[in-house]
Amino acid sequence: MTGSCFAERLARYVPLTDSEKRALERLENNPRDLPRGATITRENDNCDEMYVLRHGWAMSYLILDDGSRQILRLHFPGDMFGTSSAAFGEATESLVTMSHATLCPFDKQALRVVFDEHPRLAALFFIIAQAERVSLTDRLASLGRTSAKARVAALLTDMLVRLRFLNKDISDTIPLKLTQEEIGDATGLTAVHVNRMMRALAEDGLVMRNNGNLVIRDEQGLARIANYVNRYAELDLGWLPAPR
Amino acid sequence: MTGSCFAERLARYVPLTDSEKRALERLENNPRDLPRGATITRENDNCDEMYVLRHGWAMSYLILDDGSRQILRLHFPGDMFGTSSAAFGEATESLVTMSHATLCPFDKQALRVVFDEHPRLAALFFIIAQAERVSLTDRLASLGRTSAKARVAALLTDMLVRLRFLNKDISDTIPLKLTQEEIGDATGLTAVHVNRMMRALAEDGLVMRNNGNLVIRDEQGLARIANYVNRYAELDLGWLPAPR
DNA sequence: CGGCTAATTGACATGTATCAATTAGGGTGG
DNA sequence: CCACCCTAATTGATACATGTCAATTAGCCG
């Protein structure tokens, strides 16, 4: 146990030195407990913080002028998020918890130490940023070029893949903490239409509802109609600097 | 003159040290000239390179199973692109020139030196990655939650803002190197519908065509209907490490 | 003067949104 | 344990935005 959720995540890619672990722990020395639905940051508010999520789920979203919402990304335990604070003084997105959550905020000034003293960690931060960028481009293609059914399938597949990455015990069943309205806001659809697509996916034998859970009955099939590419599998870390 | 297009870009945010300039120049010591329409990388090909664009335009895109294309981003002079190579061994997107172009490829191993010896440059790389991530989230909201007309307006506004950032002489007229098919592939629309939306924008007095150029007649109005947020204006660099 | 690609236009098809009920489910207080 | 309430899910009818198909025109290059 490193005492840092984020360190554990990174340690899955490369074994960390003690010094690196300590540097990451400093990012998490200020944990805060939040109830479900708590607002962490609102778009355009001044914000110099970034966050590591230790327990629970969160999400980031934008609200447009007409009041509609675009959910940008779901955040799971071990994720670092709110990272646009590194570039901007005002929040570029709103952040809210989707469940009871433990959150570790840290000031972006803390990044200076990481970049100054731990080049390998800095490189990992950059690599993660690139991986998230790719995840966003995949979603862009999903929204721009695939059908409603495919978009919903892509969201569900991505949730399964990411949650399983965090917990190897997960095989085909995940908690579905999203309302259909939220699924719609993530996929650019209406709640009503999401409902129809979920039913269609169920009728196709691809998924099944069970209490608040979702059972993926045909992962391959779901991924296929979603046009889903699993890119989490392997990062290429060949260029990393030496650890310090 | 630094001899590095990318260094000039970064120097607009912070004055660079000689040592930093030299490090950036090394990324560009292998320029290559390409004709219009040249493929730089194809999705899924092995690729350990990243690129700095010195002259001309390029773009990145994905092709889906059904053959449809999603254009992810346009790249202009001074842009670094193909950066997902930092995280993956295979290209996550295809790259192609949109005009005669001068390109400077560098192996991702070169990043190691930057992160090891130039923490401030590394931090700038991270900041730029975050800014591009935000740009993608804005586009996600555009595709997910706005009308066809708004999406086209957003693309045109973004092009104007970015090109003007590169060249202060640009006031309201930009070359439109995109076919309507390409505009459609960028905005998730059909070429036919793009044509109608362009006409609508023209009828609204927002834009005008002139040879191969586009004249933005009402930038405010175009940005308003596009739901456009200009985030290029100011980065917050307060946390940057000391230069080396 | 072809010959090619891109732009334009019209008629029509379809996917998704909208509107309006109704039903189901999950807490809470009595 | 039941009655109630509130939110989410579900369903049907209809409207509308965008896609599709097909044809024509414009523009450019050799």
From TrEMBL, chains A, B:
Residues 146-220 form the HTH crp-type domain. It comes from Sphingobium boeckii. Keywords: DNA-binding, Transcription, Transcription regulation. One of its GO terms (cellular component) is cytosol. It holds the Pfam family HTH_Crp_2. PANTHER family: CRP FAMILY TRANSCRIPTIONAL REGULATORY PROTEIN, DNA-BINDING TRANSCRIPTIONAL DUAL REGULATOR CRP. The keyword Transcription applies. This is CRP-like cAMP-binding protein. It comes from the Bacteria. GO terms for molecular function: DNA binding; DNA-binding transcription factor activity. Residues 31-115 form the Cyclic nucleotide-binding domain.
